[in-house]
Amino acid sequence: MKNKALFPIISSGLSLLGIVLMHSCATAPYPAVVSPPDSQSAPAAGSANYAASEAPRSRPGLGTGWGDELESEIGYTSFNRTSSKPAGVAAIYYNDKEGVNAMVDSWKYSGKGMQKAAGGLVEWGVKGSWGSLKNYHTRYSDNPRRYVVGRKNSNYSLVVKNLSHSRLEIVLSVDGLDVMDGKAAAYRKRGYIVQPGKTLVVDGFRTSESAVAAFKFSSVDASYSNQRHGTTRNVGVIGMAVFTEKGIDPWKWSRAAVKQRHGASPFAEAPYSRAQ
Question: Where is the segment annotated Disordered (predicted)?
């Protein structure tokens, strides 16, 4: 039962202001939440780590900073993972326009904001203040990647829709940090539960059971990762791990299965002629 725990559940696909969350009767303690940036966390000038960290902090491009506090309430439920390994993992790389152009070179093509991942269990994307961010992909590559272009000082949200017929656990990371506790991301950490057909919208790093600090495109230097942890190594990537529920087939009663049932004939073989 090591994969069973009590943790947040989201059951609505509405935006932040219209979201409806289910609160169970569980009274488990809330997992460690994200702490605000602390300037003292970064290496001080003259320290042993200052010289090594100075260059990375001056990197060009975008990072994710600590935005305004937004209301976002959660409840709890139990969920037993099928396996300690996720059913699927995906990543989205982000940068400013110049940075994305440099990362994908001249071989690229764009796509719609929401795209399928984890074997079709979900579709996900990044939503900015002006709508879903367009995707760019390397056209010919042994290691295809997905990129989005952000705008400095604007907020963004992570959107994940459950396309399966069972609950899914979604573990998300930004700049290598878990969105629940702001520390190094890992598969073993718990995530959000999304009901079948519903959409999860995560607007920021969770600071309490009722609020998050908005994801905000910033400079690499002003990123939460740098300001809080003094590192920019994983700045520029958003990660997602999807877990299925033990003992439940996420594709039970899929469209194909329903279509097959509708195609059943009451007579295995048609009569050769009408009965007299």
Answer: 36-64
Total number of domains in the chain: 1
Q: What is the pTM of this model?
A: 0.78
| 275 located within any domain | no
- Gap between the Cα atoms of 180 and 169, Å rounded: 13
16-29 confidence digits (pLDDT tens): 222 233 332 222 33
CA distance 197 to 214: 25
Residue 45 falls within a domain, yes or no?
no
Residue 50 located in a structural domain: no
The whole domain housing 131 covers 4-31+60-262
Cα separation, 72 vs 183, in Å, equals: 20
Cα separation, 246 vs 261, in Å, equals 26
pLDDT tens profile 36-83: 776 444 444 444 444 444 444 479 999 999 999 999 999 989 999 999
In angstroms, rounded to a whole number, what is the distance separating the alpha carbons of residues 226 and 214?
Answer: 16
- 169: nearest Cα among 29, 2, 7, 1: 7
